[in-house]
Amino acid sequence: MSQIALPARRGATPAHAHNALPPVELVPILWQEAKRYQVVLVTIFAVIALAVLLVGMFVLPQKYTASTTILAQDSGIIQPLLEGRAVATGVVDRAGIARQVVYGRKVMHGILEAGGWLDQKPDPIEQDKLIEDIRGNTRITAPRENLVQITYSDSEPERTFRVTQRLADLFIEESLANKERESREAYEFISKQVSAYHKKLTDAEDNLQRYRSENADAQPGSATDVNTRITALRTQVEQARMELMEQRSRESALGSQMSGESAITAVQTRESLYRTQLLELQSQLDTLLLSFTEQHPDVVRIRHQMADIQTAMQQDAERRDRTGNDGPLGDTQLNPHYQELRSQLSEVRREAAATASRMGASQELLDQELGRSRRIAASESTLAELTRDYEVNRDIYQDLLRRRENARVSMELDQEKRGLTMRIQDPASMPLRPSGLRLAHFAGGGLLAAMAIPLALLFVRVRFDPRIRSARQLERRNSAWPVLTVVPRYLTARDRRRELGRMALSASIFLFVMLAFGFAYGYRQLNA
How far apart (Å, rounded) are the C-alpha atoms in residues 143 and 138? Predict the structure, then answer.
């Protein structure tokens, strides 16, 4: 029976509408309610504790973690020796490169084989799910720029160790293979480009040679030679023109002198005069033939003069035969001074004719060179384009040759595993204890929750229960009526037996829970 507080008189109105209890009154009431509902509270405690224990043992997976560290570094001796000749591996985002390699299909298939998942012969869909789980349980980081750390978690410690070890081995193999394949593909690509540009260079050279062979004026230095030749010919033409003007002036002066001289000074036959002239012309012809050919203008002119004199001699002989005398000049002689002037005049005329011929020849050559200069100017654009194509292809071809040699050296370095060195710095080890929340942590949290929840329910029941549970509470609610006495609860023998039965049952339930927790802990330690 509960205690009953009796007021002095009835009909009093409560002074407060609330039912708040101070801590001094709340603790005894909580203790009394706990004793009253101890079986219910212990039962709630047992259900929660055992549920958490079962979840921790059978639902919560054990998570084992293993990690390995890989050191990736370039060769410190070969790189300075081959600087500028070989392309070294750059240290850029090692973790990102490792993820691309490790998460690849080839590496994941090797992990499925190493972890024993392929022994069950899963179908492609199941393999994809397993690969996704493996990727989710794998973490790749880069603690430093040359270090790559691979961490893997699994529910089985032995499989965790095998998978982590295999991940490191496959990463090193694939990284070196990818580096070697990359350098080989680079070499093959540059080699193809070298062949292509060699053909382009050969075609450009053939086009340039063909154009130069078809255009004689398109030779290198032709423009300079033509300009030099034009300058020299213009100088010759000007000099010949000045000499011709001088000779024309001398010819005019000699003609003036001859007009004041008499041609005949002594008796001489016409035939002897013609013969004297013919001998002089023959002497001049012999002199000219020593220096010039038969086609020279002076030679041709003298031959014409000799032919004229011979014709005149023949006509004079025919006239003499008809008339019987030598004519007016039969008894005369030529004037020596007049003959000298005439000889000089002939020489000047001959030189003037030669100069005029030379000037004409020089002018003709000058016109030819000017025409050639125009042709060279017209062909310069085409020649410049062909030359430019040839030089561009030649420069690119030579650069590609150098790059191909560099790529070949890089390829040989990667084939001999000398360009990039990868080794396991910290090997994976067998995990002996699970990581994260273990059964002990989970069981401890479950026990705390199993004790806290019943106590919280008990506190809520007492705190928000509208019934009066103490005399002071009654006095606060009915301040006009003082409490005279409190009737204590009286326990009968039957109530005591019932109380002892509830206590025994509660203790049995609590002991069963503790034994279950101990058995679970021992079983887990034995398996470990």
Answer: 16
Strand partners, 4: 487
Reported as a single tens digit per residue, the pLDDT across 314-323 is 888 888 777 6
CATH topology for 64-196+416-426 is Alpha-Beta Plaits (3.30.70)
Domain ranges of the chain: 4-57+439-527, 64-196+416-426, 222-405
Query: Which conformational region is residue 443 in: left (phi greater than 0), alpha (psi within -120 to 50 degrees), or beta?
Result: alpha
Phi-psi category of 325—alpha, beta or left, where left has phi over 0 and alpha has psi -120 to 50? Answer: beta
pTM: 0.44
Over the stretch 258-281, which tens digit does the pLDDT of each residue have? 676 555 554 445 677 788 888 888
d(CA 515, CA 422) in angstroms, rounded, equals 53
Please give the CATH number for the structural domain made up of 222-405.
Answer: 1.10.287
Distance CA 500, CA 422 (A): 74
Distance (Å, whole) CA 265 – CA 331:
10
Residue 96: φ, ψ to 5°: -65, -40
Strands (E), 344-499: 420-426, 483-487
Whole-angstrom CA distances from 121 to 34, 60, 158, 193 are 58, 27, 20, 47
User: What gap in Å lies between CA 247 and CA 358, rounded to an integer?
Assistant: 14
Identical topology for domains 64-196+416-426 and 222-405: no
Residue listed under structure tokens 């079986």: 39
